[in-house]
Amino acid sequence: MAGFEVRNPTITFRDRYALDLGDAHLRLTDWGPGIHHSALFVHVVQDNLLVGMGMGGGRWIPGFVDHKPSLEDIRRAISIYERLCDENFPIDVMIGIHKPYLNRSRQGFQQSGLYFQTLLDDLTQAQQDGLSLEQAKAEFSLNKQHAHFCSYFTLPEPERREKQHQETMNTIWELLRKEGLTARVAGTSNKQVGPERQTAP
User: Fold this and answer.
1) How far, in Å, CA of 106 to CA of 104, rounded?
2) Are strands 25-30 and 102-103 parallel, antiparallel or unpaired?
3) Do 123 and 172 touch, CB atoms closer than 8 A?
4) For residue range 151-160, what is the model confidence (pLDDT) as tens digits?
5) Per the confidence metrics, is the pTM higher than 0.85?
6) How buried is residue 71: exposed, middle or buried, by Cβ count under 10 Å (0-12/13-18/19+)?
């Protein structure tokens, strides 16, 4: 548009950033890449108002469009969900972008964080027990093991919900496997063959 110049941002941040605008204080929370389709949540401190995209329930599956998530990304998202549910973080009203209504419940945050943490715990235990991916997917099927999460998925069709759930397990399983391999390699390289021989002066 005439009169408006597109420029690169002068401020970038990771995780959290606070803005003091005099009569308003804003706290920005960055989800980081790969987890949530909303890049940013804005907390208007004076009004206990939170503005964001999906409000915790818009997308359960790590996004693969621009960035494949890491375990660090997933664990960080869980910590953000926990922070948003903290009673010391006052929120009276939440406005979801592209949503026609106001939201006053943080249950979506609670369920999203619990969903990811549950899958991390279950799949970690499955790998430690020597299960295959297919065995783990059968054991932790959404309809069999985690049906209590169904009402928080955005897709109403059971087949599509289960498909998304299975894809999430595929991703987390592979990330956990790679983390385990990396840890084993690091542990092997740090082992000492034996005590150093000391010679008399």
Assistant:
1) 7
2) unpaired
3) yes
4) 666 666 778 8
5) no
6) middle
- Which pLDDT tens digit goes with each residue over 110-144? 888 888 899 899 999 999 999 999 999 999 988 77
Q: DSSP alpha helices (H): ranges in the chain?
A: 71-85, 107-128, 133-139, 158-190
Distance in angstroms (rounded) separating the CA atoms of residues 171 and 176: 9
Count of residues making up the chain: 201
Contact 164, 60 (CB under 8 A): yes
Question: Is 17:24 a contact under the CB 8 Å cutoff?
Answer: no
Query: 167: which residues sit within 8 A by CB, 6+ positions away?
Result: 61
d(CA 52, CA 108) in angstroms, rounded, equals: 13
For residues 126 and 173, give the distance between their C-alpha atoms in angstroms, rounded to a whole number.
Answer: 9
Q: Kind of pairing, strands 102-103 and 93-96?
A: antiparallel
Domain boundaries, the chain: 16-184
